[in-house]
Design a protein that fits this description.
Elements (H helix, E strand, L loop, with lengths): L1 H36 L15 E3 L5 E4 L2 E4 L2 H10 L3 E2 L5 H13 L12 E2 L2 E2 L2 E6 L7 E14 L2 E16 L6 E5 L3 H14 L3 E8 L4 E5 L5 E4 L2 E7 L11 E2 L4 H20 L3
């Protein structure tokens, strides 16, 4: 009997050690090796030190930073308007009442305010949106923060967070009335750059790493999102001169192309889980 117990203990010990090794290998690969392997900042090394997500007023991480534009403030505003995006108004009591009216009466409000998110300790410098329903319930929107220390070719670089508001409801964390975002933030990133390119406003386009590939993360309202982890950077034409030719696209390393190819195949699976 003692021999059987000793054999059972040794077997349990081996299984336990094997599980521990497997878990350790997973965490090492998922949180150390692969994130380091997929990082790339060859087109703008300064962005490696930039923030990766926005922050809510109480300190919780908000939406991921997934876009950036290079240009002056005037060029940003003109480019976004030409691309079909409207500047969002500031949040005031009057604006809040108009949102309520717009939602109740199903009237359009194309420049409704957006909630404040923070980068470098300050709220967004610019915000734009595209409303796609009669009320403010569904809309594409993006916030931008001006960066003094990050620049390219002598121009300012503006970090941004582009997401799609799919509904209005209560925050899962604070119970405030708020918009809930769609999980696929990469589609919003790509749409914004496509709109700017269609309007002839981009002369250069490239990607660098932002938050890194993420299967399941939550923003400051508790909304789930997933992303391939890339930040798209668009360089605007000087003076908003319309470009007839497509922008110069700087290539990412082969390992990043491979990662993004795999990610594209997984997006269908992620979209299935959006329903739940």
């Amino acid at each position: 009997m003692n021999v059987k117990r000793q054999k059972l203990k040794r077997r349990i010990l081996r299984v336990g050690l094997a599980l521990l090794a497997l878990i350790s290998f997973y965490y090492l690969m998922a949180y150390a090796i692969l994130p380091a392997y997929w990082k790339h900042y060859e087109h703008n090394p300064g962005l490696e030190r930039a923030p990766k997500t926005t922050v809510k007023s109480w300190g919780k991480a908000g939406d991921p930073l997934n876009v950036a534009l290079v240009g002056t403030e005037e060029e940003i505003i003109r480019a976004m308007i030409r691309a079909g995006w409207q500047p969002a108004t500031r949040r005031t009591l009057r604006a809040g009442l108009r949102i309520a009216e717009s939602e109740l009466l199903k009237r359009p409000y194309p420049n409704a305010p957006v909630s404040n998110l923070y980068v470098w300790g300050r709220r967004q410098d610019l915000a734009f949106e595209q409303v796609i329903s009669k009320g403010p319930r569904k809309r594409h929107h993006v916030r931008f923060w001006r960066s003094q220390q990050l620049s390219e070719e002598g121009k300012l670089l503006w970090l941004g967070a582009a997401t799609f508001d799919r509904s209005v409801g209560l925050s899962r964390l604070t119970w405030e009335i708020t918009h809930h975002i769609a999980p696929d933030v990469d589609t919003e990133r790509d749409k914004l750059m496509a709109d700017l390119q269609k309007a002839g406003q981009l002369v250069k386009l490239y990607q660098v790493t932002s938050v890194g590939a993420t299967v399941r993360a939550t923003n400051g309202e508790g909304d789930w999102y997933y992303t391939d982890g890339e930040l798209a950077v668009g360089v605007l034409s000087t003076g908003n001169a319309v470009q007839a030719a497509p922008p110069e696209e700087l290539a990412s390393p082969q390992k990043i192309k491979a990662k993004n190819s795999i990610w594209k195949r997984l997006q269908g699976l992620f979209k299935f889980f959006e329903k739940f």
